[in-house]
Automatic annotation (TrEMBL):
InterPro entries: NA-bd_OB-fold (IPR012340), RFA1B/D_OB_1st (IPR003871). This is Replication protein A 70 kDa DNA-binding subunit B/D first OB fold domain-containing protein. Residues 1-64 form the Replication protein A 70 kDa DNA-binding subunit B/D first OB fold domain. It comes from Brassica oleracea (Wild cabbage). Transmembrane segments: none annotated.
Amino acid sequence: MVFVDKEGTRIHASVGEQLIKQFEGKLTEGEAKVVQLFKLYDVIGDYRTTAHPYKIGFFQTNFVGTADEFPSEVPEKYFADARYVNLIF
C-alpha cells in the first residue's frame, strides 16, 4: 500500500502475512489514519511504488487510529498522476 502525508509525500508501507488479520479493517483505501510505532526500511530492488528511499513496516505494536486533523476523505490532489507504459515481455 502507499501512504501519503498532508504535504503529499508518498511512502510504501507493507503488512506482513502474519499480521494481516490484526490490521484488516483498520486500513481502508481513501481513509485518513494516524499510524504510529512502525519501522522504516531501505527500499531494495527494482519494484518501487514510490520514489521515497524508505518503506514502512508494520509490527504487532503498531497503532492505527483516526486522523482528526485531516479531511475525512482524501482529496484528489494527494493522489499521484499515474502514467502507464505498455510493456512487452
